[in-house]
């Protein structure tokens, strides 16, 4: 495959990697506290590392983290985001997947049979939404 086509199709040296995240917040979190948490998440865990998030939720969130623009997430960035979840007092449970192809691998959270890179602090994984 020619280089121009590999670039257009995000193949080979142009492959872009990202990872899935899933996290749960307290049921009694207020709207203002939720907004503050999300501001922290976007600024501290993502934007400061050049990352973006596509996902949704309220008390339970899930989505995909990728580079904001072209490029791949590094294992170091993935680990830093996982550590941010681990150390945030509002996060009750979280999961962070291994790096995966942002364009061609499964859409949605990895199936239960696939190993997940991160673990909930309690040692138990979250149930699929």
Would you mind describing this structure in some detail?
A hairpin with a 2-residue loop joins strand 2 and strand 3. It is built from three helices and five strands. Helices cover 28% and strands 22% of the residues. The termini are far apart.
Provide mean pLDDT, rounded: 84
Number of strands: 5
Largest sheet: 5 strands, antiparallel
Number of helices: 3
Class based on secondary structure composition and strand pairing:
alpha+beta
Present the secondary structure layout.
Elements: H1 3-9, E1 17-24, H2 31-46, E2 51-57, E3 60-67, H3 75-87, E4 93-96, E5 100-101
Antiparallel strand pairs: 1-3, 1-4, 1-5, 2-3
Helix pairs in contact: 2-3
Short description:
By secondary structure, the chain is of the alpha+beta class.
Which features does this protein show?
alpha+beta, Alpha-Beta Plaits, about 130 residues, 5 strands, 5-stranded antiparallel sheet
